[in-house]
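Milestone M4 deliverable, item 7.
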Amino acid sequence: MDLHHVIDIARPVLSDYLLKYLRSRVNILIVVDNEISLSPGANAFGIERVIRLLRDTSVGCMHFQVDVGLRSNVPFSVVASPVGTAAKYVGFRFDSTLPAGGRVIDAYDEVWCFGFKPDNFGGSDANITAPGALPASNAELAVLTTWMNNRKGGVFATGDHDYLGASMCHRIPRVGTMRAWTNAQGVPPVGTALRIDTNRPANAAEMAGTEVIEFDRQDDAVPQPIQWKAWLSFSSSPWHIRKRPHPVLCHPTLGPIDVMPDHPHEGVVFDHVPQPDVGLAAITLGNNYNFGVGVTGAEYPTAGGVQPLPMVIAHGTTLADPPLQHAKGDSPAKRFAMINVYDGHRANVGRVATDSTWHHWMNINITQIEAVGGANWEKIKRYYLNLAVWLAPPEIPRHCFFFHTLESLYSYPGIEEFHPKVNLLDAGLVFRKRLIGLYGPCWVTQFVFDWLGLLDLKLRERLIERYLLLPMPNRPIPPRPDPCLSCPPPEMFEAVILGGAIRATSAALFANGGGLEAGLKLMLEMKPERLEKYLLEGTAEGLKQLQALSAKSCEETKQLFG
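Output delivered:
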């Protein structure tokens, strides 16, 4: 991480602390069938550009190590020094073991699956489990599921139309029911009027319906608009409702991510309601898995009375032909679920995300968008990065929070504003602004809720029910919340929690009056467990002050109206 904003005397100490105590690197294993290209090229049918983007970019404290596993019908081997974005693991399976011992996936925090097999012919579902399609075995799925559950490993998975990707993905817990993979589930086809054709017109004649929207419009610079779904919703009056997208679709400066590359025949993800435009039923939630060797359980588990459910975070739409003219023929306008996510951390398992198509990710679809640049490319590439951040096991964002708390005390404006007696709300507003600049406002909200779970699980769930539009067993389609005149806005409780953390850390380092250099010596002796204790104590103090402010405000309102 670039620390040039940190004062000189603190820079080496903070670097040492990060390396010695904290986890900031997210290790991602991208698993592809061998039909997906890993080579560079503007028209490549593959994900080389996304791999390079992840490797070359950091988000706040987090940076990404990306390796590739190639599912192919050859003996498993490890490539010592793969060239460029080539595969490190050849003949990979989810239960592959390293020559020195240990499972490959245990070295990774996230697994991203880009599946192609069984084939592109749209045949019978029997093809999915044919030996030549290399279907994920029970032994593989037992290892992967244990990793998802015990290590809280994050999983992303996508395919395309028909049953593309089903052989690898359709039996992975959560993944298999969050997205449509099989004919039995109702996958959309590659052709006919039933396809999901998101290609957009590129000129006035195509928009007017006097010229055909060519197939290769998928690789031009014009993306499709998408409809992001509200994740946070807050109203303090009947006339003003504030909404934010899910953190995966939230850009730090450009707002909601509302575009994606287009494609003439996408897949689809499941929602909690049927999708009549594409003939898809509602998601199935009651399944159990059993992969043998004791790996059994509910697909969507409950922990501490909490059962998180998947949530659609974006819908796509198609344009009707007629009046437009699509290269693949007539097709009525459709609305479909495009991206969904599952916050398994609330149930002590890993997070999951699925996407309707890998064409949102492929070189052939993004090269021209990147060449033009501007807001569209910035938003699309941030989607990729946001997924890498959001899917990470909880220890990594928590450690980044520790680090940003410390570095903010030794950089402007915290070096002047933060001290043991600082006003808690003022400190929180400054620190919150710093975190928003790095991660975006939606991530800050997500992290604060996650952090509160360490202090008071029941409080976290009450706040989630008030502020977040998350599906729950008793309300799979959350209603618009009633206005709450006395509820603090999200920015308020975020600020007091972050301010409490800052003040507690400042007190731990500077309360003895030793100054900045003495604080650095204390920092190096402060292991993460001790720092977490201070931060949670500060959080509790922030909540206490917020309760006092709220009680005072309610009393003033009571007096006002007699």
